[in-house]
Amino acid sequence: MRRSQFELFDHPTLPNLGMHHREEWKCLSLLQPWAGLVVDGFKKQDTRSWDTDYRGIIYIHASKTIPTAARKLLSQWPFNLYVREEGLITGAIIGRVELVKTERSERCLQKMKLSANTDQVNEEFHFGDYSPNRFVWHLQNPQKLKEPIPVTGALQLWTYKSFQLSSSAFI
Q: For 50-80, how does the pLDDT look when each residue is reduced to its tens digit (9 = 90+)?
């Protein structure tokens, strides 16, 4: 069965048939379990030491290694509600989200304290580092890829050149 142009990824084992629309993806590498929490929609904010002017689709790359400290978190609340180590994918693009805004962590914390949904706020607080002088990236519309795309990640926002994906490539 022949795959359509929208089902192919930029993968060395797939033929280049010369009819695929190429595109550049903005990507962000995250450690597991945070990468999985983002694409599964449980983590709606990502905290960073740096800000960006970029807004739009960001593909989430799960870094190749899971640090020991991150492994220890898997048995603690709220991580243990959503994540199992045996299901964590590493070294691949696993989905995408939309970055809609960024703000200083101090401002975000003030709003979180006023929120009526304290359970969600408590979980989100434990999923990030809201220390002073950090930035909170607000993420929406998470979509998980049906098949991860093995690739080496990078620091900061980075670009990956790939074939266009159809909506059927996502769960």
A: 999 999 999 999 999 999 999 999 999 999 9
Q: Return all residues near 55 (Cβ < 8 A) that are at least 6 apart.
A: 99, 100, 101
Would you call 104 helix, strand, or coil by DSSP?
strand
CA atoms within 13 A on the CB side of 116: 0
d(CA 5, CA 132): 46
**Nearest-CA neighbor of 53 among 156, 141, 130?**
156
Nearest C-alpha neighbor of 62 from the set 102, 85, 34, 81 = 34
Q: How far is the C-alpha of 128 from the C-alpha of 139, rounded, in Å?
A: 13
Identity of the amino acid at 113? K
Dihedral (CA of 103, 106, 107, 110) sign: positive
Q: What is the mean pLDDT of the chain?
A: 86
Task: Please report, in angstroms and rounded to a whole number, the separation of the first and last CA atoms in the chain.
Answer: 21
